[in-house]
Design goal:
This protein is α+β, with helices and mostly antiparallel strands. 34% of the residues lie in helices and 24% in strands. The protein contains one helix and three strands, in the order E-E-E-H.
């Protein structure tokens, strides 16, 4: 399989009081944050899930067959 490289979106995480929120820095609504999350670990896991979805979408546009 050929090497695939994906430059992913940039995410912003911010702490408000004791809770964490995140949003996509460069989308149409950069001020729209998701949350609250109780810890930095929780918010980074959610960002990782979003990044995984983006990789899958991009890979499927290149080749509709999943990589093995």
């Amino acid at each position: 399989m050929p090497k695939l490289t994906f430059a992913l979106n940039h995410w912003t995480a911010e702490q408000r009081g004791k809770y964490w929120y995140y949003g996509d820095t460069y989308r149409d609504e950069p001020s729209k944050y998701r949350g609250p999350y109780s810890s930095m670990t929780s918010v980074t896991l959610m960002i990782a899930r979003e990044m995984t979805k983006e990789i899958v979408r991009r890979r499927e546009r290149i080749s509709p067959h999943p990589a093995e």
